[in-house]
């Protein structure tokens, strides 16, 4: 479980996140939506402490993230995989080596690395692509490599930062189905930041809407989308100043 209480994050004097309180339950696919600049990606970065924050607490499975030492934080991050919009692959490495990177950083032996990489390649549908480099892959295939890499250390959580935004609609749907399958088969909790409301509606069971760094609304996705609030209608562009 991820429990966020009264989280405030500032850049200079500006509060990008202002008194955020959320609870993300085990096995959730939890969506975070909002206009550009409302703090969605910053919230993800605070969860795994890629960014420090001024006040509040983040508790992940009983660990207070803000109190962890450098060594404790490194161990904690084994349990939290990250997926980025730009894939963040190493161009000079082939698919096998890109997926294997976290395992190599933790000193796993080559036999275990080979077994795990091949297992993950099968999960994401890239068994035939292990020897090729990222430049030879489509956008969807690159994102599948990034997802496989995020899963290498058997995390309990995946933080997905606009993972489908750079993809065409058909490919985005295939990535959504893959994430749903991972969630269902392995019980991995997914926190998904996106501005694509159709994607969020199709995959998430709970949703948080951020406005100006605050929680404007939070609840079950089905209820929010069936009876859109002012916050959601505004996000959809259905409200005007007239």
Automatic annotation (TrEMBL):
It holds the Pfam family ABC_tran. The keyword Transport applies. Keywords: Amino-acid transport, ATP-binding, Cell membrane, Membrane, Nucleotide-binding, Translocase, Transport. Transmembrane segments: none annotated. SUPFAM superfamilies: P-loop containing nucleoside triphosphate hydrolases (SSF52540). Belongs to the ABC transporter superfamily. PANTHER family: AMINO ACID IMPORT ATP-BINDING PROTEIN (PTHR43166), METHIONINE IMPORT ATP-BINDING PROTEIN METN (PTHR43166:SF30). This is ATP-binding cassette domain-containing protein. It comes from Oscillibacter hominis.
